[in-house]
Amino acid sequence: MSLTVRAITDSEWPAYSDVLFEAFNSSYPSEIRERWRELAEIDRTIAAFDGDLAVGGAQILSFSMTVPGGPIPVAGVTSVGVLPSHRRRGVLTALMTRQLHDLHENGREAVAALYASEAGIYGRFGYGRAADTLSFRIPTHDSAFTRSAPTDPALRLRLVPPADALPALQRVYDAVRPGRPGLYGRSGGFWRNEILPDTEHDRGGMGPLRCLVAEDATGARGYALFRARGRWSEHSVPEGEVRLLELMATDPAAYALVWRGVLDRDLCAVVHAGRRPVDDPIMHLLADPRRLNAIWFDDLWIRLVDVDRALAARAYAAPADLVLEVVDEICPWNAGRLRLVTDKGSCEPTDAPADLTLPVDVLGAAYLGGRPLRAAADAGLVREHRPGALRELSAAMMWDPAPWGCRVF
Ligand SMILES: CC(=O)SCCNC(=O)CCNC(=O)[C@H](O)C(C)(C)COP(=O)(O)OP(=O)(O)OC[C@H]1O[C@@H](n2cnc3c(N)ncnc32)[C@H](O)[C@@H]1OP(=O)(O)O
Predict the structure, then answer these.
(1) How high is the pLDDT of residue 241?
(2) Where does the record place the catalytic residues (predicted)?
(3) pTM of the predicted model over 0.95
(4) Selection from 330, 212, 218, 319 nearest residue 271 by Cα
């Protein structure tokens, strides 16, 4: 195999997309291809060629993502795949290496983020599991709220056709986004092509996309996007289900009301709520939180492309002044010692002795504030050279609320 990795041209898009559809075992109809093309940034799409044949590829979407302290530019890595005929011959390694070098040279983003199809793939390229997510399976008949659940008589619930709801959804999402690490800005095209589509393919056997909005005289304060499916048992007992795709609210009363609207849907026995934050307030609202039947798995993976700029770009929960020795085999410009002074927001190269030595993926995992460095140290991944340095950095990097990207890109 003679491998070349380079940016694709417009005319090479079909060849790149064919590789992806093959790699993901997909048979997407043409409208899905068109949506995907509309979101893609061709100049940030690379492919690997074996001679003339496209055999792998990867994309970057340019996002503004909230990190502790506020939004920063983040490279959203997506649509990565290698032809089954060329797997395990280093094609992904060549793509990831090229992408990280391009990002460093371009200088636009110091941080890259992705959702992994399999959790074993990206650690070797310096990505750390930075956010987790919970999925709930809530039996509606056991979903009573605690007596202290907040209410607001000014609020009402309204069913809105999703296509008409976009201004309300954007208003709520954009109000919530700056306070939650991991949430990223959604363009109009992203809403249209990723969040609101409703073809048979998108429904996957469920009913149409539905939207509930909680509002008062000032406008929308919360929403839920979901699908439902009616079903009856052989004894004619209603056993319908709801699949909650997204639920956001700007305040506790709107949040509780939207959840109630989803949980109280008639003829539905269960609500499946995927990809919820690990600190979802629903855990406090349900009178019997065991009924959430939660499953835990990974959400965003984070790669610090330029460790110095990335660490200087976020805020910290506690002061820290220490020297880090970063180990990074893929991005040699990161290897070496850096002095991080959180009060000054500075992270500069230094010759001073290291207080901590740690690999770049461990720093990436801690970057959004959801994963204690102390736990990585307990797993033997961090070396402490000055007593107290680990506790200092671990406390500084934690953040409230927990990180959450909400929807896969
Ligand atoms: C952000 C996203 O888009 S996530 C989507 C990723 N894509 C997919 O899941 C689609 C289906 N899978 C594929 O296309 C390919 O199998 C890929 C992209 C996952 C891997 O591509 P390959 O070219 O085979 O990877 P490559 O040969 O460079 O492997 C590099 C290393 O990763 C390991 N690796 C590759 N895939 C996996 C995996 N799925 N799980 C665990 N390890 C893996 C290899 O064993 C190899 O390890 P080594 O360095 O110790 O020998």
Answers:
(1) 98
(2) 122, 409
(3) yes
(4) 212
